[in-house]
Structure prediction request, 379 residues.
Amino acid sequence: MIRREKKKKGIDGYARLKFRIFLRTALMMFAAVLFIIMLYRFFFWGHFANWVVAFLDTFIYRDYNKAWWAYNDNIRGNVEYIFCMAILAVFLAVLWAYLGSFTRYFNEINQGIDVLMEESAGDIRLSRELAPIERKVNSIRHTLTRRKLDAQEAERRKNDLVVYLAHDLKTPLTSVIGYLTLLQDEREISEELREKYLGISLDKAERLEELINEFFEITRFNLSDIPLEYSRVNLTRLLEQLVYEFGPMLGQKDLRCILEIAPDTMIKCDVDKLQRVFDNLLRNAVNYSFPHSEIRIAAGREGDNLVISFENRGDTIPEEKLERIFEQFYRLDASRSSQSGGAGLGLAIARQIVERHGGTLRAFSGDERVEFKVTLPAS
Prediction:
């Protein structure tokens, strides 16, 4: 239906061009017929004979009788052939003018394509009859410009990210080397201080591992052709296990996680990839929640879909940034906390995984509450 409507719209859009060509063709045909009638009268009603005799008398023979006999002997018997040649000349002239009207449109389109390739600032302008082509070419122009700007912005964010991550890699690595050097050099160190240095070194090493993993994510982000391996999964147990594993992180900020889901809720999905989505959303909620608050995870059916929401209390995300947080390499936190900031890939990859399952991932925020809602087909 949509294709038929577009086709009909395209036909209607060229109605002006069709009418202009029809009108020009009709006028040329009328002019040609009128000119042929005038030629016929000129050739066969005596005008041609009088004109030729007068020409011969004036410029060649200087004698009317000689001019007449010359016309009668040499030209009069060939008037029909001369008339046909005149008609052929008229036909070629009309055809040349007719083709010229078409080539003018092609020249305009060609000039418009040249402007499109030059990437000049202004829109392309064509004749009124070519308005549909003008709109399409300008639409292509705007799309290419937008894609170019998006690519440049993505490349800029990626380059900034590499610089930031390189700096973040150096910071924990320097700490690990420093504390291990102290442990090696200080022979008479207390057990308590040794445990402290080892604990700090371990924390920094774990942070270093996280950053290295994010470098791997950058290279793997566009590998979207990895097939999904579907299996039937107990979603209730999956989420319960997830909340249990996040216990230490929740305890660090005194957060309370509430899980609301019916027992033995089943779903068919790629469990490894979907677990990664839930892990990312819960980690995101923990990192950006107010201390001493609660995180609510709720799952239930809505029609033929399963909806899983992750809600936490935190700074309100401005409406204009709710979609941008799903862009690759976009970081909402401009201050880049080294402890909580990531590569800006987690939410982008999460949305990609959900969409490959035939679902959606959306964000909502207001009144110091942030909610991520995953909608997946129940079957």
Summary: The two ends are 29 Å apart (CA to CA). The first strand starts at residue 231 and ends at 234. Strands lie at 231-234, 256-260, 266-269, 294-302, 305-313, 360-366, 369-377.
